[in-house]
């Protein structure tokens, strides 16, 4: 608040420095926000494609497993699933997009060869193979969607934070600093005017005193001259 | 296990099988079932003498489509157990040869149960007690705590040697594939037709050869489509007439040639449409279904030429199996929200 600031030149200089810094920060953050939005739009397009692929893969996988359960029986499908113990693994790393740390998910052992799925090849069917294939595809899509959508969420959070910072600088800090600056400038001008006025007053008073002293001196001299004149006359008499 | 000494009794078994065959669902029944909800299908089955007992017995433990599937499996098991119990002499051997596929199923189910640490009751529910293994052996298998114990328990059976040979592979890789393949290979070895001589058994021999040829064809296509560097001759099953191990290795790298080989074979005419579809489509499912239809057609024609042989019995076994598959497909299809037309397109009906 402007009233809390001491209207001194030192404070004025400090505020001017802060305004300068804040304006530069505001410009930088605005550029960052715009850059993040552009990156976000790219990721958004990718995320939409990935999501569509995920939904398509899910429908395919459901269709394949339903048909496998129908034609082979639930018991056979469960049995084939029970023959597999080795589960897929994922490892996460991170990458930096404009200062935002987003995950990079690497998966392994998702796609398996026919002889790696646990169930015997000789006694099983193409329906079970295709259901397993479809679920492996689905799992890969889920992993990709997790990576892209997490990146998108993190970018969105960063955009929100940057936007809040830009707005705080633009609508709160900079107006306050400018208000303070104006306040101090006004106060300083006022003080200057008061000083000039005071000096003028002193000067006028001094001149008046000098005038009075002059007048007194003149009166005294006049009186002295009159006295001398009176003394001369009396002596003449 | 039934006694199977004495002379063959196909007249008696065929007479009993004929009456059972008459009770099987017709195409119209499937059409009706495809328009029912799973609960209505269960009620429809309850009204059928073939499934009434199983639906009532399992009704307190299962519900919905699971009840239907378990009742179908139980009915299949009881039906085939009855057939085996009626058979005598060589007939028993011929029928049991085919029904050992359920023994193979049960061995794989028990292996998977122990491997995945599934509870005993759940594994027991998944068994189809339609093969040669008696309940005592199955119970002992269910009680086993380790894969090694199961292999040990099966050492005296037709699967013993193959499982024993594959155990080292299992122990070094930690996956069930070698054991499952050993069980299936042992079963297909039993299907070999070297001992099926004589005109009366010629159709049965042809049918078993077709089953092995179809299995080799579909497995080679599966391996070729998977893109994995697997030698198809490792999965070759002896006993068919269409392929050899070396030939299959070559055909696996050129599926067009493989399709051409089937087209030019004795199965070409029946599979012509499915082969054309296969050339155009990514999926093998349509082709697999076409092979099932072709096998069923073989089964249907079995026994027409030699009505007093094993063939009408095997024909019934396949038709009953197909009925169970079709009813399950309808119920599971309804559960998954498939429409009647889509369900009907998945059924295998002659």
From TrEMBL, chain A:
It is found in: Cell membrane. Transmembrane segments: none annotated. Residues 204-237 are annotated as: Disordered. One of its GO terms (biological process) is proton motive force-driven plasma membrane ATP synthesis. Residues 12-71 form a coiled coil. Its main location: membrane. GO terms for cellular component: plasma membrane. The keyword Disulfide bond does not apply. It holds the Pfam family ATP-synt_D. It comes from the Archaea. Keywords: ATP synthesis, Cell membrane, Coiled coil, Hydrogen ion transport, Ion transport, Membrane, Transport. GO terms for molecular function: ATP binding; proton-transporting ATP synthase activity, rotational mechanism; proton-transporting ATPase activity, rotational mechanism. It is a peripheral membrane protein. Has multiple subunits with at least A(3), B(3), C, D, E, F, H, I and proteolipid K(x). Component of the A-type ATP synthase that produces ATP from ADP in the presence of a proton gradient across the membrane. Belongs to the V-ATPase D subunit family. This is A-type ATP synthase subunit D.
UniProtKB/TrEMBL annotation, chain B:
It is a peripheral membrane protein. It comes from the Archaea. It is found in: Cell membrane. Has multiple subunits with at least A(3), B(3), C, D, E, F, H, I and proteolipid K(x). Belongs to the V-ATPase V0D/AC39 subunit family. Component of the A-type ATP synthase that produces ATP from ADP in the presence of a proton gradient across the membrane. This is A-type ATP synthase subunit C. It comes from Halobaculum gomorrense. The gene is atpC.
């Amino acid at each position: 608040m402007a009233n809390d600031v001491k209207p001194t030149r030192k404070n004025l200089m400090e505020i001017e420095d802060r305004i300068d810094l804040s304006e530069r920060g505001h410009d930088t953050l605005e550029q960052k926000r715009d850059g993040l939005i552009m990156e976000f739009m790219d990721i958004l397009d990718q995320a939409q494609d990935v999501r569509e692929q995920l939904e398509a893969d899910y429908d395919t996988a459901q269709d394949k497993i339903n048909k496998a359960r129908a034609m082979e029986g639930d018991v056979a499908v469960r049995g084939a699933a029970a023959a597999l113990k080795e589960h897929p693994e994922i490892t996460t790393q991170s990458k930096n997009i404009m200062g935002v740390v987003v995950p990079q998910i690497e998966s392994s052992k998702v796609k398996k060869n026919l002889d790696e799925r646990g169930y015997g090849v000789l006694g099983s069917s193409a329906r079970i193979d295709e259901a397993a294939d479809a679920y492996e595809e689905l799992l890969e899509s889920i992993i990709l969607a997790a990576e892209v959508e997490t990146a998108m969420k993190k970018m969105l959070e960063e955009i929100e934070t940057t936007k809040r910072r830009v707005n705080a600088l633009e609508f709160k800090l900079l107006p306050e600093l400018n208000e303070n600056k104006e306040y101090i400038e006004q106060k300083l001008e006022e003080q200057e005017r008061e000083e000039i006025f005071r000096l003028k007053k002193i000067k006028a008073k001094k001149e008046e005193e000098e005038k009075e002293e002059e007048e007194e001196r003149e009166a005294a001299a006049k009186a002295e001259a009159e006295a001398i004149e009176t003394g001369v006359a009396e002596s003449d008499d | 296990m039934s006694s199977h000494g004495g002379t063959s009794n196909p007249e008696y078994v065929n007479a009993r099988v004929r009456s059972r065959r008459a009770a099987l669902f017709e195409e119209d029944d499937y059409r009706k079932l495809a328009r029912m909800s799973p609960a209505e299908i269960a009620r429809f089955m309850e009204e059928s003498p073939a499934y009434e007992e199983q639906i009532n017995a399992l009704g307190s433990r299962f519900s919905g489509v699971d009840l239907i599937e378990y009742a179908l499996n139980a009915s299949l098991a009881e039906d085939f157990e009855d057939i085996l119990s009626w058979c005598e002499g060589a007939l028993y051997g011929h029928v049991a040869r085919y029904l050992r596929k359920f023994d193979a199923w049960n061995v794989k189910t028990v292996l998977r149960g122990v491997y995945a640490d599934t509870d005993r009751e759940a594994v027991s529910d998944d068994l189809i007690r339609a093969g040669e293994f008696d309940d005592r052996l199955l119970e002992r298998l269910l009680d086993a705590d380790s894969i090694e114990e199961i292999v040990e328990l099966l050492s005296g059976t037709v699967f013993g040697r193959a499982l024993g040979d594959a155990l080292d592979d299992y122990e070094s890789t930690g996956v069930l594939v070698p054991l499952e393949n050993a069980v299936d290979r042992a079963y297909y070895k039993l299907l070999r037709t070297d001992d099926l001589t004589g005109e009366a058994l010629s159709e049965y021999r042809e049918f078993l050869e077709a089953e092995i040829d179809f299995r080799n064809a579909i497995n080679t296509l599966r391996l070729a489509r998977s893109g994995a560097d697997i030698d198809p001759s490792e999965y070759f099953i002896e006993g068919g007439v269409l392929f050899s191990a070396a030939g299959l290795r070559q055909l696996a790298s050129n599926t067009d040639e493989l399709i051409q080989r089937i087209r030019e074979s004795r199965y070409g005419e029946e599979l012509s449409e499915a082969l054309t579809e296969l050339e155009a489509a990514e999926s093998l499912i349509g082709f697999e279904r076409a092979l099932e239809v072709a096998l069923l057609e073989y089964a249907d024609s079995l026994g027409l030429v030699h009505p007093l042989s094993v063939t009408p019995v095997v024909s019934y076994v396949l038709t009953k199996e197909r009925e169970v598959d079709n009813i399950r497909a309808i119920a599971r299809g309804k559960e998954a929200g498939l429409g009647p037309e889509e369900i009907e397109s998945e059924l295998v009906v002659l």
